[in-house]
Amino acid sequence: MIFVEPEEFNDFLTMMGKDYFFPNIPLLLPDEDNDAEREEYFPSKLNGISRYRIVVQYPDVIHNNVTNFDYSNFDVVSFLSTDKRDYLIRNDKDYNGNGNYNQVKVASLSDKKWIMVCCFACPLFSISSYSLELRAVSSVCSELYECYGDSFEMVLVFKMTEGFLYDESAFRHQLSGFHSSCLAVPFFDSVSSDCICRSLGFSGTGKGIFCCVDERKVIWHKDLGYFNTYGVDAFPFTDEANRIVFEKERKISWNDVSLENLLCHPSFLYKNPRSSGGIIEVTTIDLLKEKLVGVYLCMNGDFIPELHEIYECCKAANKVFEIVVVYMPFMKKTCNPQLFQAFINHALETRKISWWVLPFESWVSRRLSRLIPILEDELIIVGKGFVDPYCAYVVQKFGMPAYPFSRKLMFKKEIERISKVGLASLLVYEDIDYVLRKDNSKVPVASLVGKNIFIFVDFDSGHIDKNVGSPFFCYYSDIKGTLLSYYPEMKARDPELEVIYVGSYATLVCTSSEIPWLVCPYDSNHFGIFAKKIFVEGIRVSTLVAIKKDGMVGSIQAHKHLSSHGSQAFPFNGSQLRIEVMREFELRYPRLEFGYM
Fold it and tell me: Between 407 and 185, whose confidence is greater?
């Protein structure tokens, strides 16, 4: 084992601690997926100490001192004190090299309503996956002290890791990342710290552990990852409190959400003076209620350029559009909230963007991340009488023509677009204005208008030889089987019914003696144009398109209606398009809900 001697740790910390140990973070944030870049900026071993391997050293005496406590009658005073130590230290003094922390008698905790005991390894590299939980604990700790004051205490228990067992400077450095009111087991009492951690089930590796005590009763005992999801919203962290939060958020209807309760009733919004010519501008939610507002959930800033372009277009066209930035730093384990805000502010300042900003509150951001699970920047559109989440894609795909940028409008536009697609626009390409019969005789597309037509769009069967038994092959086979099953009945009812085959490759694979196929001559460019006209953007698979007698699209998933209702679903009059487009959107965005439309 490699130890850093106490007198050497200050130099060691100066060299790399400022950048790499919690509560600080690396000044350079390399791409986490780029191993070479990550190794260059943050080597796997620093002074021989692995950043991945955390090994806690336990004295032999620990095994004889682990407490098996009673959850229903928990004596927190005896649990946190020993015969030789009856106090904890208060984190209310900045360590200057000579100072000492103030001592607080453990017995004074008996007067507290709530006590939280949190155990985790020390020190933690900021780039490690556990730093995210540690930052969440620090944030929650500050909010709980502000909310509950003297009725609440948090006790930190640090378990020193390999290489730092005797380094008090590392202890002080990690403690500095927490609220000044926090209590902690003193560094010198490592035996007691280890006993507490082992009693709560924390071995020193993995996520830390916390328990919450309410008047001598342990009401919650869980790992620290919980804080990053729920923050203070579920305090005091009982099963009942968790259930209430879950049920309340599960029942939220976007039709009933206002801008004010979406942003949790902030007292004001502001504009960054550096982006607004040095002028400090402040507004309230009441002044934005009657306007179209885009609530920008900013997780990485990638959406800023596109959103800025639309914002400027709206200004130029005298269309009302206000943007409120909400910082969402909690998905980035390498970022603390302060640096994340500075990074986003810098991105706005360099583009001279002056948007409204919601003052950062970690619990507000966490609540929004639960209501709207996201992996990238997202936009919530709040207009007069409606709230529409997941609208970043609307801005990206449709731009200004989609103003006011709601999914409902995008949905409506897509239905209108597909319903206006005609037979000629699908099958005629350059000088090819015909389809072929089996004997290669040409049938003019114009002669097909006035008939009911099925277009079998085949994306899959050309890959059968490579993917025998694949889901795509099954899908292709199911459609073909459905069409063959009901074709005789439909043909008997409408003798002029035609079936046209359109494939994504040059060879006709879908053949059958029961159906006199017409074939659209293959051209790769034509097929690409055809697909863009008939499909909602997203995953493209084989389908059966129905064309009405007026030459317009009646259904883009006719095979599904035939499977459900048989030949009675024929002919198709376009009434199914709404539900079909909705299915296509849900296929493109599995986490979205379009049912309310």
Answer: 185
- Structure tokens that stand for 328 in this block: 């969402």
N-term to C-term CA, the chain: 63
More confident residue, 437 or 248: 437
Reply yes or no: is the peptide bond before residue 373 cis, omega within 30 of 0: no
Q: How many Å separate Cα 495 from the centre of its chain?
A: 53
Q: How far is the C-alpha of 428 from the C-alpha of 395, rounded, in Å?
A: 32
Helix (H), strand (E), coil (C) string for 227-276: HHHHCCCCCCCCHHHHHHHHHHHHCCCHHHCCHHHHCCCCCCEEECCCCC
Radius of gyration of the chain (CA): 32
- The answer to whether residues 547 and 450 touch, using CB atoms and an 8 Å cutoff, is no
Q: Does 18 or 301 have the greater pLDDT score? A: 301
3-state DSSP of 319-348: CCCEEEEEECHHHCCCCCHHHHHHHHHHHH
> For residues 480 and 476, what is the distance between their CA atoms, to the nearest angstrom?
6
Q: How high does pLDDT run on average in the chain? A: 76
Helix (H) or strand (E) segment spanning residue 23: none
Tell me which DSSP letter residue 301 carries.
Answer: S
> Among all chains, which residue has been given the structure tokens 């909230």?
337
DSSP string, 192-234: HHHHHHHHTT--SSSS-EEEEEETTEEEEEEETHHHHHHTTTT
Residue 312 parent element (H or E):
helix 304-316
Domains in the chain, CATH or no CATH each: 6-244 (3.40.30.10), 254-405 (3.40.30.10), 423-588 (3.40.30.10)
Residue 216: which region, alpha, beta or left (left: phi > 0; alpha: psi -120 to 50)?
A: left
Written as one letter, the residue type at 349 is E
Side-chain half-sphere of 439: how many Cα atoms within 13 Å? Answer: 2
Among 172, 197, 199, CA closest to 187: 172
Confidence of residue 491 (pLDDT cuts 50, 70, 90): very high
Residue 504 CB coordination number (10 Å): 19
The CA distance from 75 to 135, in Å, is: 29
CA dist 219 and 231 (Å) reads 17
Average pLDDT over residues 468-484: 63
**What DSSP character marks residue 101?**
P
Closest CA to 185 of 282, 62, 81: 81
Span 525-582, pLDDT tens digits: 888 888 888 876 655 678 899 999 999 999 998 999 999 999 999 999 888 888 888 8
Q: Any alpha helices (H) in 333-445, and if so which ranges?
A: 337-350, 362-371, 392-398, 407-419, 423-427
348 to each of 279, 382, 391, 554, how far by Cα in Å? 15, 22, 21, 47
- In the structure encoding, which two tokens stand for residue 522, read together? 């293959």
